[in-house]
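Example S7 (structure tokens).
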């Protein structure tokens, strides 16, 4: 009886599965027609907003269906939320610092000019370039040079959470084509519509892109000077204070509570807060906010105005902190005095590559051997840890590398 019921349930489940499969198939067939209808409706919206029919039709030529990879990326939820040291380690390391110093030499005349024009230090611009696109290296990956029109149309059509935002960005993208700054074949970017060396979304491009190399086009895709100047312009318009830092690593006196709001550096100093490197704060009435991204036992910071300007680029504390720390290291100011509460021993960039190479040789990893530990590397580490009887935390640690070397 029990067995019969189970068998019937399995039969019902199989039937339900078949129905879902058939319906999904029908959805795919309908989806393309639906996408075409969406484009036709959107054509009215865009032309009402000043996009010429000719520009619209040229932009959508050949776009017949949504980009499935865009929808896949849009629905991706990372299994583990990255800890602060994970995020920072991936962006501030010997490799990103070394390449930044090399780029500072390669682009020196332009960086001199951009720094003078906008009052934003070159090291901050180089750090943004690194964090956004690894100094342009991500364009070697086809996923980073998707059609921006198709990506945004896909999100506008099929991603209900981003639909309104994506439609607004798509109108802006079409207007960029209309200006002639770029042609449709080169209007490319990430799945989420972030474009060029410094990953501007179309409305940011409209507001802040500049043609510093004066070839008549604001080209953040093909011109490094234009891209870095555009980032500098965004920060300058956002209120960047020339000649000032983004913040200070500090040490707090034990056994007292601190306000969460903004106080002057003098007020913080009067409460016993000192710079971690032992130097004095500059005198004056600059205001700063206390930040403890890794709790009271990790590195602690007083963040000044420029930290919050960096967040206009990407509204996350960890992002602004990575840019600030990398900029300081490219400039040669040295790293943090106090380390993160990392529950493992960190690898160098070369060791991270060796880790990937060994995971790959053992069949755990299929991604690029580039020393950049992303979700793919972490999944591979967890699989290896499971097989080796280690704690499956996915951390790129010395312990894992040591175990790999014994294989
Ligand atoms: Ca240009």
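Recovered sequence:
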């Amino acid at each position: 009886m029990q067995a019969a019921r189970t068998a019937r349930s399995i039969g019902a489940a199989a039937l339900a599965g078949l129905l879902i499969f058939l319906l999904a198939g029908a959805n795919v067939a309908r989806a393309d027609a639906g996408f075409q209808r969406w484009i036709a409706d959107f054509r009215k919206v865009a032309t009402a907003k000043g996009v010429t029919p000719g520009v619209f039709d040229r932009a959508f030529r050949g776009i017949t269906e949504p980009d499935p990879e865009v929808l896949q990326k849009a629905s991706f939820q990372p299994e583990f939320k990255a800890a602060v040291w994970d995020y920072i380690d991936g962006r501030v390391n010997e490799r990103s610092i070394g390449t930044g110093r090399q780029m500072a030499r390669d682009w020196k005349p332009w960086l001199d000019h951009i720094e003078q024009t906008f009052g934003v230090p070159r090291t901050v611009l180089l750090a943004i370039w690194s964090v956004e696109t690894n100094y342009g290296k991500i364009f070697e990956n086809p996923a980073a040079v998707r059609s921006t029109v198709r990506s945004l149309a896909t999100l506008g059509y099929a991603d209900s959470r981003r639909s309104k935002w994506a439609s607004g960005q798509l109108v802006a993208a079409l207007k960029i084509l209309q200006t002639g700054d770029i042609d449709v074949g080169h209007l490319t970017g990430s799945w989420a519509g972030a474009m060029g060396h410094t990953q501007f979304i179309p409305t940011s491009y409209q507001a802040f892109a500049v043609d510093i190399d004066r070839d008549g086009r604001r080209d953040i895709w093909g011109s490094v000077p234009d891209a870095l100047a555009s980032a500098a312009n965004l920060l300058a318009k956002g209120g960047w204070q020339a000649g000032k830092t983004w913040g200070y690593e500090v040490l707090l006196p034990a056994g007292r509570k601190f306000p969460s709001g903004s106080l002057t550096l003098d007020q913080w100093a009067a409460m016993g807060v000192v710079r971690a490197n032992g130097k004095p704060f500059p005198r004056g009435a600059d205001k700063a906010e206390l930040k403890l991204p890794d709790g009271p036992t990790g590195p602690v910071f007083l963040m000044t105005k420029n930290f919050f300007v960096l967040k206009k680029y990407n509204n996350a504390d960890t992002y602004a902190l990575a840019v600030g720390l990398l900029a300081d290291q490219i400039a040669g100011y040295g790293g943090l005095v106090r380390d993160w509460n990392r529950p493992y021993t960190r690898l160098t960039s070369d060791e991270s590559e060796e880790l990937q190479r060994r995971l790959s040789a053992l069949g755990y990893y299929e991604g690029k051997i580039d020393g950049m530990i992303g979700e793919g590397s972490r999944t591979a580490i967890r699989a290896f840890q499971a097989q080796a009887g280690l704690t499956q935390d996915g951390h790129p640690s010395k312990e894992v590398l040591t175990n790999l070397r014994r294989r």
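Notes on this example. DSSP finds 17 helices and seven strands in the chain.
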